[in-house]
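Worked example 3 (structure in, sequence out).
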């Protein structure tokens, strides 16, 4: 057995699965660019205070799951548990709102860290693709973020999903709702877990999301945020849902949806997808947050965004389609019959690669028979053979491994694009 093993909750991704992983990330990026999002690349660690101040003093992510430590200079540091706080910190620090037209639209991807109990689709280091729209007061942007997730899923050939959606209205409606919940739960406080007793004081909304008290809470008819909406926010919610309907988004209003982070003030949503065995994975979630930029000492800008779990999307695609479906083979396999062919083999390979063709040169000294076996195993389209005769005539034998057709080409033919079809 190897001496060093990976840490609990971390994963190694390689070969075809790694190709699939990169395909998912690049699909997300490509789709985001169709909405004019620009990339933002931010640090993987920040001050711990950034997350306690933004993501929440009552969220599990901050109170229980954060990888926080003191660095060698005695600073309190945390590995990022999510991306929103860091993106907003960067926007405020670099005053990006003053340089660019609003709304700003940024996308990001990379590793995030939560000290969770590992299980299928839940890791301690995981990958997210996220977007943030900053400086937008329009519900069209809430709708657009949901449409972007839909487009990403559809581009990945995922059509079966469900969006659960809810709204707090705005910060005022949310506060009114919070007060109502507090009033309602006052008589139940003794029956709640220790965490919820603490949440009752700091942020009673989070009690609705408690895993320990789930059953008890579900039996109570707790007031829902939709009942606390004013007329304006009721209308905004309706208009948003109408856009989703008109654009074929498969959604359902879930009045009990509460997200696991503290900053949301408006529409919130989560995307669920079922695996073949019936297990449901939440592949992403997001919503509107209107106070975070100001809380991090920036101007008063309302924002909306989401995060998608890349590892979960990879699991779903492996469940839906064979992993082999995502394998890639190079197009050309160059077979030098002996060392005298090495130099021209390298020149041909480089010529083809400059024409955007994928090429493997056989670098191990294999027999012709084992090179052919290797070629059929790896599904190359063409083999280019370079033996003594080819070297003498400066004409190289090309075999189409699908049709078995054979022909000869010179280096000038290759340079002229003859194999570039
Ligand atoms: P979140 O719901 O905490 O939101 O995470 C988004 C997604 O990341 C989840 O739906 C899930 O797919 C994936 N994820 C979370 N934790 C894990 C884990 N331990 N292992 C594997 N995947 C995981 C956010 O992080 C917000 N920042 C989203 C957002 C952006 N809201 C506004 N802007």
């Amino acid at each position: 057995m190897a001496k060093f093993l990976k840490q609990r909750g971390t994963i190694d991704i390689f070969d075809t699965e790694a190709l699939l992983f990169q395909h998912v990330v690049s699909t997300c990026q490509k789709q985001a660019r169709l909405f004019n999002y620009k990339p933002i690349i931010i640090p993987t660690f920040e001050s711990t205070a950034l997350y306690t101040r933004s993501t929440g003093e009552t969220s599990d992510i901050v109170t229980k799951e954060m990888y926080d430590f003191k660095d060698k200079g005695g600073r309190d540091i945390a590995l990022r548990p999510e991306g929103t706080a860091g993106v907003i910190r960067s926007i405020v620090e670099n005053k990006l709102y003053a340089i660019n037209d609003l709304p700003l639209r940024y996308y990001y991807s990379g590793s995030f860290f939560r000290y969770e109990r590992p299980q299928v689709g839940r890791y301690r280091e995981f990958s997210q693709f996220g977007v943030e729209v900053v400086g937008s007061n329009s519900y069209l942007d809430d709708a657009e973020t949901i449409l972007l997730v839909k487009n990403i899923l559809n581009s990945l050939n995922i059509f079966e999903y469900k969006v659960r959606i809810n709204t707090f209205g705005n910060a005022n409606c949310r506060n009114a709702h919070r007060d109502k919940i507090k009033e309602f739960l006052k008589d139940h406080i003794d029956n709640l877990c220790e965490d919820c007793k603490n949440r009752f004081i700091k942020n009673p909304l989070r009690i609705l999301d408690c895993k320990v008290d789930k059953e008890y809470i579900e039996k109570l008819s707790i007031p829902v945020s939709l009942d606390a909406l004013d007329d304006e926010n009721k209308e905004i919610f309706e208009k948003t849902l109408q856009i989703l309907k008109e654009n074929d988004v498969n959604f359902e209003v879930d009045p009990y949806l509460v997200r696991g982070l503290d900053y949301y003030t408006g529409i919130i949503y989560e995307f669920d997808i079922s695996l073949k065995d019936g297990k449901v994975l939440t592949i992403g979630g997001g919503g509107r947050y209107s106070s975070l930029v100001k809380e991090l000492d920036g101007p008063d800008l309302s924002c909306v965004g989401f995060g998608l779990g890349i590892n979960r999307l990879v699991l779903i695609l492996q469940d839906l389609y064979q992993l082999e479906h995502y394998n890639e083979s190079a197009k050309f396999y160059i077979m030098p019959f002996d060392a005298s062919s090495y130099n021209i083999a390298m020149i041909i390979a480089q010529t083809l690669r400059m024409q955007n063709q994928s090429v493997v040169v056989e670098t191990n000294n294999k027999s012709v028979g084992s090179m052919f076996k290797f070629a059929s195993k790896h599904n190359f389209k063409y083999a280019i053979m370079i033996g003594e005769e080819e070297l003498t005539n400066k004409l190289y034998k090309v075999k189409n491994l699908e049709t078995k057709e054979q022909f000869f080409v010179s280096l000038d033919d290759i340079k002229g694009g003859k194999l570039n079809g």
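Notes: The chain has a mean pLDDT of 95. The pocket of histidyl-adenosine monophosphate is lined by residues 82-84, 114, 116, 121-123, 126, 128, 130, 132, 260-261, 282-287, 305-307, 309, 311-312 (CB under 6 Å).
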